């Protein structure tokens, strides 16, 4: 009886510690959700529109002139938060980067901010759900996970180069499939550079349009030529994967 009670006493702290550890895993997720709710409750997402950009163009320009380098850091922080909570309006925010800081600095600021934000949501998803989902995954999911991990960098690069799926979805899925953090960050950083550059370039030339109250359409950013270039880059990224699979089949058939 004493042994039984003692086992319970010894088991108690371990259970409490386990429960505490499980709860701690969800703290970053709760904080992120709270930030998102606050942003929408205060209607801060309404500032990520072309109408808001027109109205606040002069104010933004003056603020950047006063803050200097600090303005770039603040912008990257805002972009990271917007990416982490999956706010709509990423296109406008990227255009703002080109408008306020120029093509090159704007591109760098966006890429760094987006990579930080995407990495944050990746780590939160991996910590909160990754192990649990993988433990409950069936054979099909496990096979997909193994295949994705084998060529994770190339697959992610393609998904970043061509927005076939929403940005937030591409942030989450690799975390649930056990992709390494370094691979995820590298593919994200490199993969979003071309598209970001194009949008930032557009933003850099938008100043005169806003000053003259001319109409601007986002549809004109990705012309057929630019889309073709992005598709070409994606094809180059996926070629090594295709080559490895074709070679493996030939080797298998030869043996």
Structure description:
The chain has helices at 2-25, 27-41, 50-67, 69-84, 90-101, 103-136, 139-150, 152-161, 167-176, 181-191, 193-204, 207-211, 224-254. With 255 residues, it is mainly alpha-helical. It is 82% helix and 0% strand. α4 (69-84) packs antiparallel against α5 and α8 (152-161) packs antiparallel against α13 (224-254). It has 13 helices and no strands. The mean pLDDT is 77. The protein is globular.
Largest sheet: none
How many alpha or pi helices? 13
**Regions with little confidence, pLDDT below 50 for 5+ residues:** none
Structural class: mainly alpha
Record field, number of beta strands: 0
- The proportion of strand residues reads under 5%
How much helix is in the residues?
over 70%
Distance between the termini: 65 Å
Taking Cα atoms only, what radius of gyration do you get, to the nearest Å? 23 Å
Order of helical and strand elements:
HHHHHHHHHHHHH
Shape: globular
Mean pLDDT: 77
Which features would summarize this protein structure in a list?
255 residues; mainly alpha; 13 helices; 0% strand; globular
